[in-house]
Design brief:
The complex is a heterotrimer of chains A (about 170), B (about 350) and C (about 425). Chain A has three helices and ten strands. Chain A is α+β, with helices and mostly antiparallel strands. Chain A folds into two domains: about 55 residues, no CATH class; about 100 residues, Rieske [2Fe-2S] iron-sulphur domain (Rieske Iron-sulfur Protein, 3-layer Sandwich), CATH 2.102.10.10. In chain A, α1 crosses α3 and α2 runs antiparallel to α3. Chain A is elongated, with a radius of gyration of 30 Å. Chain B has a single domain, classed as Cytochrome Bc1 Complex, Chain C (Up-down Bundle). In chain B, the strands form two sheets. In chain B, strands 1-2 form a two-stranded antiparallel sheet. The N and C termini of chain B lie far apart (about 70 Å). With about 425 residues, chain C is mainly α. Chain C is elongated and about 135 Å long. Classes of the chains: A alpha+beta (about 170), B mainly alpha (about 350), C mainly alpha (about 425). Chains in contact: A-B, A-C, B-C. At the A-C interface, α3 of A face α22 and α23 of C.
C-alpha cells in the first residue's frame, strides 16, 4: 500500500519520458565526463518525474471508500430493527437515533439530548426516547415532554432504498 | 533518416523549423537586474501547477453546501495523496500571488511598461485581478467556517459601492445571502470562467513578450548590452527555479498540510478573528481604520472607491508615465511605488498583529 | 377606566357571585373606578392599590372587596367597610390560609380562571412545617403572603414573581438565611449560602436553566418540609433517575436507612452539592467511601476496584485524546477517530453512574468496551503519526532528487557555457 519513492518505481512510471529528456541532455557527445553528467541527469530527471507522477497516479486510482460522506447516511438495514426498538447510528460528527415505533414506522432524530448533550436512548417500556442523565423524556415526534430538556430533538427524514434505511438531514 | 522525414512532414504543415529557428534566436539581456526576469516564468509555472492539481481535485470535489466540506475531507483522508494534492494546490495558489506581486513591482520599478509594451502591462494587470478572483472564489470552496464568513464579509464590502454595489453583491452571492447557491456560483467562476479568461490573457501576455523581446532597463543601452541565449542557457536556469519551486511546494505541503477547519454553519454566530487571505489583509485593515464618516460621506465607501481608483491608476501607469524619461516624473513614480509597497507591508503586518 | 380593564371584565361574566362572594357587574365597575382613583391619591391606600395593578388578580378582574369583603356599593365608607358585612382590613397570619383559601381551595370557582391550577395548597400548607407551627400558635412562620406577596401577587410563570424559579431561593432566604429571625428554631441558616455554591445553582443562575432544582423542587412548595432520610433517593431520583434506581437496588440502601444516613446526601451533601468527581470514589484522600469503610472490609476493596476501573478508562481516554490532538496539531486529519472517542467518553459517563450499584462487575461491563474504543482511538493516533513520518520520509526522498536535479542542471549549464565560451557567443554570467 505504501511505497517509497524509489528509483525503480520512477522508472516504471516514466519510461516514456526517456526520449524527451535524452534529447535535452545528450545533444553533445564526446568526452567521458560530459557523458557521465548526461547519464546522471537523465536518471535524475526520471527519478524526479517519478516522485511527482507517483502521487498523482495514486491520487487518480479509486480509493477504498469510493464516495465522500454526504448529508445522508445509511442508518441500518430494513428488518434489522424490531418493532418498538431503537438504535444509535453515526451521522457525520454526531450520533443519531433510529426508532421503529410500536406501529412499525421508522423515525430518526439527533441523539444528542438538548439539556446537557448526553446521548439519548429508546425505551421500549415507556415507548419514549429517554435520556438517562437527568431523566429527560421525548415523545416519538422528538418533542420534549418531561424532565429538563429545553428543546425538542432535531428530526431527520427517513427513506428506504432497497433494503437500506437512509437517514437525511433536511 | 526517419526522424528527418517526420520533421519535414511536420514542418510543411506547422512550420516547426521556423519556430525552432525563432527560439534559437531568442536572447535574454544580461545586466544587474536580470534576476527579475525569472519571476514571470515562475508565476506561469505555478499557474500550471494550479491547473494540474485543480483538475485532479475536480475528480473528487462536489460543489454543493451539503457535500463540499465532506468531499474535501474525503480528499484529505481517504484519497491516496489527496492531502498532498490539496495542500500543493493551496500553497501554490499563495506562492503564485506572491511571485505575481514581485513580478509586477519589478516591472513597475524597471519601467518595463514603456512603449511599445503598454498592452503587455495591461494584460498583466488584468491577470493580477483574475488571480485575486481565483483566490477569493477558491477560498470558499471547502465550505468551512472561516471561508464562509470571510466570503460574507468580502462580498459585503463589494455591496457598499454606490449604485452598482447592491447588484454586484447579489450577482456574486447569487441572492441576498451567502448560501449553497453562492458556493455553486463561485465554483463556476473558479473552474470555468476565470480559467478561460486567464488562459486567453496569458496567451496574449506571453505572445506580446515574444513579440517585443525582454525589456532592457533605460539606464542600459539596448544595443550594446550583453545577451544570453534563451535556449538552452536561460531556459535551463528557468528550469532550476521551477524544480526548486516544486521542492518548496512539496516541503510546505508535507510539513504544513493545509487545514480543513470546521464545516460552515450559516446559522452559527461569526467566529472571532475572521481574516481574509493574506493578500487582502492590507485592504481589510484599511477599511477598519477609516472613520465611519468622512465629512458627509460614508468612510467605508470612500475607502472602497479609493482602492478602485488605485486599481484604475495601476491600469493607466504606462499612459501616465510617458517617455522620454523625465527625471522629476521618474522620481515621483518611484516614490509612489515605494510608498505603495511600504503601505501594503505595514498594513499587512498591522493586520496580523491586531 | 381603561379599555382593557373593561374587556377583561367582560370576558369573565360567569364569575359573578357563584358563592355570593363576587359582586354584581355594576358594583364591580364602581369598585374598579375607586381602585383607579385611589391609585392617584397620596393616601394610606395608594401603595396597595398601585401594587395591585401588576397582580394576576387584577388582570383577572378581581377587586379589593373580592378578598377584603365589605360592600363597595354603599356611598358611606364606614358602612361599606363594616366587619359585619364580611369586611377584613388586615388578616392576622393565622387567618391568611383561610383568607386565600376562600377562592383557592374552591375547585368550582378556580376552574373558571385556570382549570389546571391545583386547589389543595391550603390543605398541603397545613402538612408543612410552616403550617404545623402556625397551627400550634407560632405567628412568625411563613404563610401564603410571605412568599407570594399580598397585593402584588404575580403568576408563577412571570419572571418578576417572587416564586419564579430563579427567585425562589432568595424568597426562602429572606427568613431562612436570617440567623436572628431563625433563632429558636434550632435549624441551620447556611442553606442558602451553600446552595449558591452548588452545581444546581450554577445551572439555574449561570446557564439560566429553569429546569434546574431550587428549594421547592426538593422540599415541596406549599407542603415544604425536609423529605426525611429514607426518601432522599426518591427526591433526587426525579431527575437523577438512573442513579436513584441503582442506589435503591444496591446493598447501601438498607444500611443507609438503618443508620440514618440520608441516602444520596450521605456522600453528596445536600444544599451545597458540588459537581461530583472521580476523587470522591475509592480509598484515597477526598474519597467518601472511607467515611464508613475501613481497610479489610469488602466495601473498601470494592471502592478501590471500581475507582481503578474508572481511572483506567479515564487515563486511557486521555492518552488517546492526547495522541489524536498531537496528530491534529501536526496537520493530520483525525476528525473521524476523534468522533469515535465520544463513544468511549460516553462509556466513562455510564461507568460513573454505575458505581451507584456498588458492584465492580457492573462497572466493568462498560469500562471494558470503553477501553477497547479508547485503544482504537490510540491506534488511529499512532497511525496518523506514522503517516506523518511516512510523509516526511517521502518528502526527504523527493527533495533529494529535486535538489540533486537542480544541481545537475546547474552543472550542465556551466558545461554548455564553458564549451560555448570558445565560440564567444555568451557571457560568463553562470560563473
Amino acid at each position: 500500500m505504501r511505497n517509497n519513492f524509489s528509483l525503480s518505481d520512477a522508472k516504471k512510471n516514466a519510461k516514456s519520458c526517456v526520449v524527451a529528456t535524452g534529447i535535452l541532455v545528450t545533444r553533445f557527445g564526446t568526452p567521458g565526463r560530459r557523458r557521465f553528467l548526461d547519464y546522471l541527469l537523465g536518471t535524475t530527471v526520471l527519478a524526479t518525474l517519478g516522485a511527482i507522477l507517483y502521487p498523482i497516479f495514486r491520487f487518480i486510482s479509486p480509493p477504498q471508500i469510493v464516495e465522500a460522506a454526504k448529508n445522508s447516511v445509511i442508518a441500518g438495514k430494513v428488518g434489522e430493527l424490531a418493532v418498538n426498538a431503537g438504535k444509535i447510528f453515526k451521522f457525520g460528527s454526531k450520533p443519531g437515533i433510529l426508532v421503529r415505533t410500536p406501529t412499525g414506522d421508522l423515525k430518526a432524530f439527533s441523539a444528542v439530548c438538548t439539556h446537557l448533550e448526553c446521548i439519548v436512548q429508546y425505551r421500549s417500556d415507556t415507548k419514549q426516547i429517554w435520556c438517562a442523565c437527568h431523566n429527560g423524556q421525548y415523545n416519538l415526534n422528538g418533542q420534549n415532554i418531561g424532565g429538563p430538556p429545553p428543546r425538542p430533538l432535531e428530526e431527520y427524514a427517513v427513506n428506504i432504498r432497497g433494503d437500506e434505511i437512509v437517514v437525511t438531514k433536511s | 533518416m526517419r526522424a528527418e522525414t517526420i520533421r519535414a512532414w511536420l514542418d510543411e504543415r506547422m512550420a516547426i523549423n521556423s519556430l525552432a529557428e525563432a527560439a534559437r534566436h531568442k536572447e535574454i539581456p544580461l545586466h544587474r537586474q536580470t534576476v527579475w526576469y525569472y519571476f514571470g516564468g515562475v508565476t506561469l509555472f505555478l499557474f500550471t501547477v494550479q491547473v494540474v492539481t485543480g483538475i485532479l481535485l475536480l475528480l473528487y470535489y462536489r460543489p454543493s453546501a451539503e457535500n463540499a466540506f465532506e468531499s474535501v475531507q474525503f480528499i484529505m483522508t481517504e484519497v491516496k495523496f489527496g492531502w498532498l494534492i490539496r495542500s500543493v494546490h493551496s500553497w501554490s495558489a499563495n506562492l503564485m500571488i506572491a511571485t505575481l506581486f514581485i513580478h509586477m513591482f519589478s516591472v513597475y520599478f524597471l519601467r518595463a511598461y514603456r512603449p511599445p509594451r503598454e498592452m503587455t502591462w495591461l494584460s498583466g494587470v488584468l491577470l493580477l485581478f483574475i488571480a485575486i478572483g481565483f483566490g477569493f472564489s477558491g477560498y470558499l470552496l471547502p465550505w468551512n467556517k472561516l471561508a464562509f464568513f470571510a466570503t460574507k464579509v468580502g462580498t459585503e464590502i463589494a455591496g457598499v459601492v454606490p449604485l452598482v454595489g447592491r447588484p454586484v453583491l447579489r450577482f456574486l452571492r447569487g441572492g441576498d445571502d451567502v448560501t449553497g447557491g453562492t458556493l455553486t456560483r463561485f465554483f463556476g467562476f473558479h473552474v470555468a470562467v476565470l480559467p478561460a479568461m486567464a488562459t486567453a490573457l496569458i496567451t496574449i501576455h506571453v505572445l506580446l513578450v515574444q513579440l517585443h523581446g525582454m525589456s532592457v532597463p533605460a539606464r542600459y543601452d539596448e544595443k550594446s548590452v550583453k545577451r544570453m541565449k534563451f535556449f538552452p542557457n536561460f531556459f535551463l536556469r528557468d528550469l532550476i527555479g521551477w524544480i526548486l519551486a516544486i521542492g518548496v511546494l512539496a516541503a510546505l505541503a508535507a510539513l504544513f498540510p493545509w487545514e480543513l477547519g470546521e464545516k460552515a454553519d450559516p446559522f452559527a454566530p461569526a467566529p472571532a478573528g475572521i481574516k481574509p487571505e493574506w493578500y487582502f489583509i492590507f485592504m481589510f485593515q484599511t477599511l477598519k481604520f477609516i472613520p465611519a464618516k468622512i465629512l458627509i460621506f460614508d468612510g467605508e465607501v470612500i475607502g472602497i472607491l479609493a482602492f478602485g481608483l488605485c486599481g484604475l491608476l495601476l491600469f493607466l501607469v504606462p499612459f501616465l508615465d510617458k517617455s522620454p524619461v523625465h527625471p522629476k516624473r521618474r522620481l515621483i513614480f518611484n516614490l509612489c511605488g515605494v510608498l505603495a509597497l511600504l503601505y501594503i507591508a505595514v498594513m499587512t503586518i498591522v493586520g496580523y498583529l491586531t | 377606566m381603561n379599555q382593557q380593564e373593561n374587556e377583561s371584565y367582560k370576558r369573565q361574566p360567569s364569575l359573578i357571585s357563584k358563592a355570593g362572594l363576587l359582586l354584581p357587574r355594576a358594583v364591580k365597575r364602581c369598585c374598579s373606578l375607586a381602585l383607579i382613583s385611589m391609585a392617584g391619591l397620596e393616601g394610606r391606600l395608594s401603595a396597595p392599590v398601585s401594587q395591585m395593578n401588576d397582580s394576576i388578580h387584577h388582570q383577572r378582574g378581581l377587586s379589593c372587596n373580592d378578598c377584603h369583603g365589605g360592600d363597595p356599593t354603599l356611598e358611606d365608607e364606614r358602612a361599606s367597610m363594616d366587619p359585619r358585612k364580611g369586611y377584613i382590613a388586615r388578616p392576622q397570619p393565622a387567618q391568611v390560609p383561610a383568607f386565600c383559601g376562600k377562592c383557592h381551595s374552591d375547585a368550582y370557582l378556580m376552574k373558571k380562571f385556570n382549570p389546571a391550577l391545583r386547589v389543595d395548597q391550603e390543605q398541603e400548607y397545613f402538612t408543612s412545617m410552616h403550617g404545623r407551627l402556625l397551627q400550634s400558635g407560632d405567628q412568625r412562620v411563613a404563610t401564603c403572603i410571605s412568599c407570594h406577596g399580598s397585593h402584588n401577587i404575580r403568576s408563577v410563570s412571570d419572571a418578576l414573581s417572587s416564586v419564579y424559579a430563579t427567585n425562589v431561593a432568595e424568597t426562602c432566604a429572606k427568613c431562612h438565611a436570617n440567623a436572628d429571625y431563625m433563632r429558636g428554631y434550632q435549624i441551620p441558616t447556611d442553606q442558602y449560602a451553600n446552595y449558591k455554591t452548588s452545581v444546581h445553582a450554577r445551572a439555574l443562575y449561570e446557564r439560566q436553566d429553569v429546569s434546574a432544582p431550587t428549594c421547592n423542587d426538593c422540599h415541596g412548595n406549599h407542603g415544604a418540609t425536609p423529605p426525611g432520610v429514607a426518601s432522599v433517593a426518591n427526591v433526587c431520583g426525579q431527575c437523577h433517575a438512573r442513579q436513584s434506581e441503582l442506589f435503591q437496588s444496591s446493598p447501601h440502601k438498607a444500611v443507609f436507612d438503618e443508620r440514618q444516613i440520608g441516602e444520596c446526601i450521605g456522600c453528596h451533601s445536600n444544599h451545597g452539592i458540588k459537581q461530583p468527581g472521580d476523587q470522591m470514589l475509592g480509598v484515597g484522600s477526598g474519597a467518601v467511601c472511607i467515611n464508613c469503610h475501613k481497610q479489610g472490609d469488602t466495601g473498601y476493596a470494592v471502592a478501590a476496584a471500581m475507582r481503578s476501573k474508572i481511572d483506567d478508562l479515564s487515563a486511557s481516554i486521555d492518552r488517546s485524546n492526547g495522541i489524536l490532538n498531537r496528530a491534529e496539531r501536526a496537520g493530520m486529519e483525525v476528525s473521524r477517530p476523534k468522533f469515535d472517542m465520544r463513544e468511549a467518553i460516553d462509556e466513562l459517563t455510564h461507568a460513573r453512574v454505575l458505581i451507584h450499584t456498588s458492584s465492580t462487575a457492573e462497572v466493568e461491563k462498560v469500562t471494558g468496551p470503553g477501553l477497547d474504543i479508547a485503544k482504537k482511538g490510540y491506534q488511529a493516533g499512532v497511525a496518523a503519526l506514522v503517516e506523518r513520518s511516512y510523509r516526511r520520509k517521502g518528502l526527504a526522498v523527493s527533495l533529494f532528487f529535486i535538489l540533486f536535479l537542480a544541481a545537475l542542471i546547474y552543472l550542465k549549464v556551466r558545461e554548455i557555457e564553458s564549451r560555448e565560451a570558445g565560440g564567444g557567443l555568451s557571457s560568463n554570467e553562470a560563473a
